[in-house]
Amino acid sequence: MRNLKIMPRNEVVERMSREVKPVHAQAFFTVAPGFILYYLIFDYYDPLGYYEFVIRNENLFNKEIMKLSINMQSFLDNEKVIVNGVRVRPRVDMIDMGFRGSKHRPYITFLIRFSAPIRIGKNTYENKYEPEIAQYDYVAYWSFPPKSKILEVIVGENYDILHGNLLVLYGKKGVKTLGYEKIVFEIPKSYGSSE
Questions:
Q1: What is the 3-state secondary structure (H, E, C) of the chain?
Q2: Which of 53, 121, 139, 155 stands the most exposed, by the fewest C-beta atoms within 10 Å?
Q3: Has residue 194 been placed in a domain?
Q4: What is the pLDDT of residue 3?
């Protein structure tokens, strides 16, 4: 009879986590006077069911949420986000996880928000970050207030402007990010009025 090596449980869980691969991401940004909030949603392929195991174990789930929160906050802290010349600090407010029809297709959602000196009139959003090679395709949707107008966009991705106030960015796996984003937009004086 062969000698079978039995791995300790924590080694099995660690191996399961290493097999999880990112496959796609979406971001949904909402911009309004005084703040920006956005949802980041990451989709994964999980062949060994790591996240199903995590969700079934309350202690492991809490540790995973804490680890995700710390990692995402660290990533955000390394970005330099400037709105109208003022440095702002995005913060992770909530994390959720679930499945898209199969335990092998988990997703993780981050809600991130922050105060920003966005005002009626012309505004400039800038984000400086370390360029990297995208590991998966992604799409970012930016929604500016009704009647707003996007005036200038500098990003590394292809993009579309819809209805003057909606911006969609398309990132591709294997393409290096620019390391800089700039969006100039104008919120009209009539914003918030019933006109």
A1: CCCCCCCCHHHHHHHHHHCCEEEEEEEEEEEECCEEEEEEEEEEECCCCHHHHHHHCHHHHHHHHHHHHHHHHHHHHCCEEEECCEEECCEEEEEEEEECCCCCCEEEEEEEEEECCCCCEEEEEEEECCCCECCCEEEEEEECCCCCEEEEEECCCEEEEECCCEEEEEECCCCECCCEEEEEEEECCCCCCCC
A2: 121
A3: no
A4: 47
Report if residue 51 sits inside a domain.
yes
pLDDT tens sequence across 75-133: 999 999 999 999 999 999 999 999 999 999 999 999 999 999 999 999 999 999 999 99
Check residue 12 and give its pLDDT.
81
Residue-range definition of the domain harbouring residue 17: 12-187
- 192 in any annotated domain: no
Q: What is the CATH number of the domain that holds 45?
A: 2.60.40
